[in-house]
Amino acid sequence: MAFSSRTGGRVQTQTALADINITPLVDVVLVLLLIFMLTAPVLQSGIDVAIPHTRSTQTLTEQRMVVTIDKDQNVYLQTNGADKQINIADLAGLLAATEQNPAKRTVYVRADERVPFGAFATVMESVKRAGITNISIVTQPFEK
User: What topology does CATH give the domain 53-141?
Assistant: First the structure.
């Protein structure tokens, strides 16, 4: 868009600056992308356990209820993305306290490979006492 004006017999033409500078916007978006890429793996790691290796695995993308047993046999329940250490005696009550129908829920159990089978069986029994029958054991694939 051009504007013209007469000053002393001369015509001066001025152009209005109508372009938007998107360089700062691109800079902010790239910085946010970098931040999300760096923090995403940290948010999903949770408690450090050495998960057993198996041949058949399935990758899950949605958020699920996860019970974790670490190498010291501490039990954690992941709620709202955060792992909270709980007493094994309270596990059945905490799992039953959620609003969803227990028969339709899935609970994922992550156990360190050094955990004795007795501790693992106690956690499985607590999950079943809560009315949850769909239990999946978290493993990782063998490296090729």
Answer: Nucleotidyltransferase; domain 5 (3.30.420)
**Which pLDDT belongs to residue 15?**
66
Cα 9 → chain centroid: 71
Tell me the chain's radius of gyration from C-alpha atoms: 28
pTM: 0.56
**Alpha-carbon distances of 16 from 1, 12, 20, rounded to whole Å:** 6, 13, 12
Sequence length of the chain is: 144
Domain assignments of the chain as residue spans, ordered by start = 2-45, 53-141
In sequence order, the β-bridge partners of residue 12 are 5
Beta bridge partners of 84: 77
- How does the average pLDDT of the chain come out, rounded? 79
